Amino acid sequence: MAPAVAIIVAAAAGVAVSAYLTFVKMSGGQPYCGPLAGCETVNTSIYSSILGIPVALFGLAASATILGGALYWWRNRSRQGLLIAYGLGLASLPILAYLTYLELFVIHAICVWCVAYAVTIVVGWLVAAREMLRAR
User: Fold this and answer.
1) What is the pLDDT of residue 1?
2) DSSP track, 2-61
3) Which of 42, 65, 81, 130 would bridge with 73, disulfide CB 3.0–4.6 Å?
C-alpha cells in the first residue's frame, strides 16, 4: 500500500508544518526562515488570520483529517479513507491557490513554510487522485 504511505507521509508533514505555524502565530512569535526572507511579512499580514483564527490552524485541521483518512484507508483498505484524502485535498486546492496569489501579488512576500505546506497538500492530492482513477 505504498500510495497510502505516501499520503500519510505528506499529511504528517503538513500537520508538522501547520502546527509549527499555528504555534508561532498564537505565541506572537515569528517563523524561522533561515537565510530567506518573507515568512515574517506573511505571518504579520492581515491575511494570516480569519476572524482572529490563524490560517495555519485551518491547515492543521485539514492535514490532520487527511492523515486520518489515509491511515483509515491504509489500515482497513476502505475506499472511504481514500475519498476523505482526495476530497479534502481537492477542496484545499483553490484555497491554496488564493493564499499563494495573496503572497505573490498582494503581500509581495513568500513564506517557505507556506510553500512547503502547499506542496504536502498537492502531493497528497495527486497520489489520492491517481488511486481514485485506478480504483475505477
Assistant:
1) 64
2) HHHHHHHHHHHHHHHHHHHHHHHHHHT-----TT---HHHHHHSGGGEETTEEHHHHHHH
3) 81
